[in-house]
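Hey team,

Filing this mostly as a record. A colleague (T.K.) asked me to run one chain through the structure pipeline before their review meeting, and I want the input and output archived in the tracker in case anyone asks later how it was produced. No errors, nothing strange. Just documentation.

Input sequence:
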Amino acid sequence: MTERKRTPWVVGVSGASGTPYAAAVLRGLLAAGESVDLVVSRASRLTLLDETGIAFRDAHWREDLGEWLGRGADGKPETFARPELDDVRYWGAGDLAAGPSSGSYPVKGMLIVPASTACVAGVALGLSKDLLQRVASVTLKERRRLVVAVRETPLNGQTLRHLVALDEAGAVVLPASPAFYTGATHIQDLVDFVAGRVLDAADVPHRLYRRWEGELGGSRPARGAGGGD
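Output structure:
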C-alpha cells in the first residue's frame, strides 16, 4: 500500500495586526484534514506577542502554536480545543533553503493571513527578502493559488498599485473585511467570516460562517412569544 503524498497549504503570517485571522484559518485547514506548512515572519512575532501575549519561539514552535490556536479572538486562553499538529511543518522566516522555497516542493498553494502592506509590496516587487516573500514568489511563478488577506486601512495609491499587480499576476486579493449579514454576536464571528472567505478562495470546505441564502433578515434570532417591538 503506497503512502499518501503530502501536499500542504503554506500559511504565511506577516506583521500586520490580525493574528486571530491566521489562527482561525489554521484551525479551519486542520479541521478539514489539510496539511500545513507554516511560516511566521519576524515582524509577526511582535504582533502576536502584543495581541495574545504569546512569544513564538523557533525551538518551541509546537507548544506556542498549540497555545495560540487554543485562544479565541478575544484573547481568552483555551477557548478552542488544541488541534493535533502532527501534519504541521514549521519553517523559520530566515530559512531560504526551506522546502517551500523551491518550485519542486509540492504544495497546493499559499495563504498569507494577515498580509501587511510591506509584505504586499515585497511580493508584488518580487523582493524575496525572507522565506514568506520567497514562497509567495514561487507560488506565483508556479501558477499555484495565492490568497493575500491584506489587513490595512486606509490604503494609499502605492499599495493599491501593488495589489493590482498581484491581481494581474493571478493572486486572490482578499481584504480582511468582515460582513454583518451572518448575524455576528461575538468578535469571533467576525474573525471566522474573514477566515472562511480565505478558505473559500482556497476551495477548502468549512462551516465557519452562515452563507447568504437570499433571505432578508435570515440571520436575526426569532423573537420569543410575547416579545415587544
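Quick notes for T.K.: Residues 12 and 132 are 6 Å apart (CA to CA). DSSP finds seven helices and six strands in the chain.
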